[in-house]
């Protein structure tokens, strides 16, 4: 074969002939093909990315948001925290729902939410409350670091780690007292009339039991303060204890329980309801309903119980799910005051970066199809709390003296009457009779007998009233007296009304859920 067969001839327009080696011709062709493919792929990728960006940026509902974000980033007179802008825009979007139960949670808020779900936190283990401008220990938790360090009910906290907390709220104080397990915190406290003293407490992991049980005058009292992980198991254990104690009547107490995990509530209902029974419905915005049924056999220990459920304006959400189910499916008796009325359910979505979105996605209805939202559950036996539960908190800086006339004066009269002092008429006028009564109170407590309610007198009145309320649970006592046959339903309702005729009873529907949660002044520390 001749050498010319290994060459390819090419003719240019001018007519010149160029001889190209065939091997290099193939290399050139392959290189051109590869380059073309790469360029095409890059072009497609760029075009695709551009299409995505254009598709997002040109959505009309986001155009203002992008314009504001870009304008601030480009023109604000100082450096901008872009992450803060994004976080606040998400917060604003959720707030735009105008739904008190939907919220976006950042890292810190998510940690608090998880504490409410698990019942675990790191701190000293004490309950505190606001009393005027003071932060008071109401109770150290049993076995807690606070109890082991000698903290007692009534101790006033005046400083934390040498930082004065004068004028602080309980929430602000709690944030300072809490801390990592194994670390120390120094509380400066005042006990009674004593001098301030420092108490060093080593923080630990604290678990808040959601269910407590006690037997009172032959009646089992099971109190549930929240629906968290493990509440159903705790509840079952307490019911079994009541059965072993031989009680026939049991009170399930949901007062001031704001709700929590729905599946825990369903499992608790299952203690009294047979398997495969519908205990509530979930309804989506299109009207489609999903039945939620029990999955296990009922607890044999509950078969012989006479069931009473105690609720009030702070009983919401999962508390109402439980109460509504037993109201529809059993002969349980509901007592107390009308519940809060939260008939919607929230779902959570993790968003990354330790943030979470909680939003309302369904309504819930009782087994009979009742939607209690905004209405609450009306008890069979209405048991309103006595007037002293509604006394206005007295500010020690204010002075109430003879001749003053306002609603707070009536609160002072109710408080002193509750503590055993004769106040005469329950009107709004600070008269000579009240001056004499205040002097008697001051004499009994070795305070200067001015007859005015201010300073130490105001503080002592509120302190003694708190102690009285803590040791006299009126609604619970009313119900136990009725169960034990001392009063009929009508008689116990009338008696409760007689003790609640001087201070206005607010409509619970005017409360927000946060109000219901805050109604109990104690805060787990």
Automatic annotation (TrEMBL):
SMART domains: PDZ, TSPc. Its main location: membrane. It comes from the Bacteria. CDD domains: cpPDZ_CPP-like, Peptidase_S41_CPP. The chain crosses the membrane at residues 21-44. Pfam families: CtpB_N-like, PDZ_6, Peptidase_S41, PG_binding_1. Residues 499-525 are annotated as: Disordered. It is a single-pass membrane protein. InterPro entries: ClpP/crotonase-like_dom_sf (IPR029045), CtpA/B_N (IPR055210), PDZ (IPR001478), PDZ_6 (IPR041489), PDZ_sf (IPR036034), Peptidase_S41A (IPR004447), Peptidoglycan-bd-like (IPR002477), PGBD-like_sf (IPR036365). Residues 499-509 have a biased composition (Basic and acidic residues). Residues 110-178 form the PDZ domain. It is found in: Cell membrane. Residues 515-525 have a biased composition (Acidic residues). Keywords: Hydrolase, Membrane, Protease, Serine protease, Transmembrane, Transmembrane helix. Belongs to the peptidase S41A family. This is Probable CtpA-like serine protease.
